[in-house]
Sequence to fold (421 residues):
Amino acid sequence: MIKRPKEINEIVKKFEKEGKDIICAGQCMTGSIIGEVPLDWDLYTEVSQEIIREMFPEGEAIGKRTTRLDYSYFVESQHVNVADRFDGVIADIITLQGPIEEQLEIYDFTCEAMGEHANGSLIDPFGGRKDIKQKLLKPVGDIRAKMKKRPETAWKVLRYVGLYGFDLNRDIYEAIQSHRELVTMVDKDIILSEFTTAITGDYAGKMLKMLKGLGLLEAVIGPEGKSSFPREAKDYDKLCDNIDRTKKIPIRRLGLFYLVFDKNYAKALHYLPQEEDSLDFLEDAKRLCPKLHFCRNDEALKDFICQFGWKKYNFYDKLLKAQNIVFELDNQQQVARDAIIKLILEQHQPIFKEDMVIDADDIIEAGITDDPERADYLLDLLLTPVHRDMSNNERDKLLKFARAFNKSRIRRTFRDVTWLR
Fold:
């Protein structure tokens, strides 16, 4: 018997109380047998929709045969390096038209074409449970005809590979090959959604190898994203070998993927319609990862954090660490950076303007300038001596620097230069 979430159990009990059977079927069976807690549940019954909607007045009518009960909620991460997620369940209660075995034929793969009665007895006409144990993706019915009608099925195949490590039955492989042109023309939002899910699975490397082997890589990065540089091909192979060793954070793994296409990074990144929040971080990765890598002292790190903020620092720091894992690089610089950041935090070293003991009003009150914009500009300049030496974060010292910067363009221009006597 599969483990049902409490919301699904409550639905099942409600039907049992009425003396009616209800059958869990579809992809929820696949995930449950593998050990996951699926979000989406297909539930089949002979009960009419009129009665179902009386039983569940909060349900939403989806067509003539389905009532949807949405008990899901979005959990938004407060940190870019922790994945957002949906919790709870979404249950579609579907009125059967004919035997359940006929209904199961609509599913694409044997691992989905299974059901379980309320009492726990299994319905498995196509041997899906065995195929799940063998991690073999096999089709139900004519997969070529299904893929011609719904070419997005090929991207679901890659999702199964990335999440669960399935191997492909030859019929599925040949169906994708014969409909490759249609598969590459699938709506880009669908491709991005399926690819992002697949790359955050336990078998992302296997999926990436298959993506390239099936000739579908250009559907993700575009024809202009790929280049002929041998190093990029070598890096892609290395990514396939080691990406599964990194944490399953969607935006981080997408960053690892796109950074492989070094020369055409921007073209590869923008081929699919990335979400705006993700794009903000990914667009700058090509420029800011090297910049952060070469921040080798506390002053440089504080300058970086001050300019780009803690959220971006944490993202690019973790992305660099993931690159070290993937490409098996020396992590000495990473260790040194961690030690410096630890010291900065322990000593509460000032990083932002708000951390300084004076503000723009103090500069005006000291008679250095009566222009608020000029005062704020000078306050920005004071970050340089404060980042260089935290002991400069004293009122008299800062006002002295402010007077010098206000009077001398040379002092302003060369404020970050340390002069040798």
